[in-house]
Amino acid sequence: MNTRIESDPLSVASRRRALLALSVLAGLTLGLAGASRAAEKAVVIPPPADDQVATNAPASETAVIAGGCFWGVQGVFQHVKGVTNAVSGYAGGESGTATYDAVSMGNTRHAESVRVTFDPKQISYGQILQIYFSVAHNPTELNRQGPDVGTQYRSTIFASNPEQTRIAKSYIAQLDKAKVFGKPIATTIEPLKAFYPAEAYHQDFMTRNPDHPYISYNDLPKVDNLKRVFPDRYRVKPVLVGTGA
User: Which of 69, 98, 131, 136 is catalytic?
Assistant: First the structure.
């Protein structure tokens, strides 16, 4: 059941708050909270053996990644040093269906995604993927993350060039061979056709709504894991879309 379908940002906020608060309470009561929280557990993984060479890197680069609800993925990367922007949006489908209402139906081929703009002199594409696999989501889940189910929540790397494709494929093979997750990685690699920014009310959602039940239960622990697992990569003040910082 998709508890995140919405028609407008005002009515949905109260509806989602009630639904998710009840689902969290029900999970705790039934002793099933561990299943819901699985996506929040960090896994310490090695860096990619095949990565960019910083001396040949451009001044700025983007990575488009999907790993469940874009609120949490955006929130994690907004706290990563070297990231200059992180925008929630949609990738994988056509421009005419790049809206939250349409994507939430699960039949648009879009995935909730985040476009991460970063300085490759400070952090490489491979290191972006290391954080993505380790703390931003659970890459072994197929078409779901935590309480969200559907192809729009799939784990996907949208590669924008052959180098990104090579690094992503090599890293997935490396992690699978090392069996660091205990089961195969479900993350797919798709060519990036286009990225469509999500509606304004989805941007910076974690920072603007830290007490939202969905955020506090599913997403804030990911930021805590980033700080714990990647202390040298963590920054306290997030880079926000709304401020242009």
Answer: 69
